[in-house]
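Below is a filled-in request sheet from our internal design queue. Each sheet records the structural input a requester submitted and the sequence that came back. We keep these sheets so that new team members can see what a complete request looks like end to end.

REQUESTER: design group, bay 2
PRIORITY: normal
MODE: inverse folding
CHAIN LENGTH: 238
BACKBONE (tokenized):
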């Protein structure tokens, strides 16, 4: 009887089974990622405005990763970049001290237009001024010497139009005063990919930053190709 009593008093040392990935508590970064997918689906016409609003409300209430997945399960983009992605989302602001105070390049349009596009070298800080004019900054074929790039934009009765390739991260930090400041947030799957931050103000004007579909940063592609070539040479014994 005493032995049985001792056995009953022994603590249960068996480890509980680890919860499934879908049962883990969702983080703010995962909620933001799902909200970005829903925003893209709205822009592509896959969701109506009412459906988008209803799903975003559900995302804000979701407690677990599994609950988040429900809201994007029927969206193609979710299967290539789901809430359980291994890479961390790009930070919403540049690393302290990484960006200089003075610009590397000024793009100015006063009662005129100015364009930066093609194969050009992007600095860490670019200032864009559109005053009764238009500025176009196309980074889809640019060369990136630094991982973090800030584009400070001022649109006063004018417009600043920014385009980036698909394999970078894009963040917005500015706002509008009787104007429109729109940045389509984007997360790259490559932790070493460039991060473009769009800052500034649209005063009775517009600042817009979006992805240019079908364009990829050549520097990243070249780096991947070099890794493949190096692995192939090692395999062949060269």
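RETURNED SEQUENCE:
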């Amino acid at each position: 009887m005493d032995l049985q009593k001792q056995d009953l008093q022994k603590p249960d040392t068996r480890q509980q089974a680890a919860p499934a990935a879908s049962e883990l508590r969702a983080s703010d970064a995962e909620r933001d990622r799902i909200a970005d997918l829903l925003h893209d689906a709205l822009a592509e016409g896959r969701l109506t405005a009412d459906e988008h609003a209803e799903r975003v409300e559900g995302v804000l209430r979701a407690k677990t990763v599994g609950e988040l997945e429900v809201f994007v399960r029927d969206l193609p983009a979710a299967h290539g970049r789901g809430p359980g992605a291994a890479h961390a989302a790009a930070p919403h602001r540049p690393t302290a001290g990484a960006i200089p105070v003075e610009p590397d390049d000024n793009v100015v349009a006063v009662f005129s237009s100015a364009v930066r596009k093609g194969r050009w070298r992007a600095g860490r800080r670019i200032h864009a001024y559109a005053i009764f004019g238009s500025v176009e900054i196309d980074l889809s074929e640019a060369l990136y010497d630094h991982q973090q790039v800030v584009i400070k934009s001022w649109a006063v009765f004018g417009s600043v139009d920014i385009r980036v390739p698909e394999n970078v991260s894009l963040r917005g930090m500015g706002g509008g005063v009787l104007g429109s400041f729109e940045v389509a947030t984007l997360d790259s799957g490559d932790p070493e990919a460039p991060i473009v931050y769009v800052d500034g103000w649209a005063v009775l004007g517009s600042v817009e930053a979006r992805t240019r579909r079908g364009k990829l940063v050549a520097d990243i592609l070249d780096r991947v190709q070099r890794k493949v070539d190096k692995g192939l040479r090692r395999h062949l014994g060269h």
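SHEET NOTES:
- The mean pLDDT is 81.
- The first helix runs from residue 2 to 9.
FILED BY: M.R.
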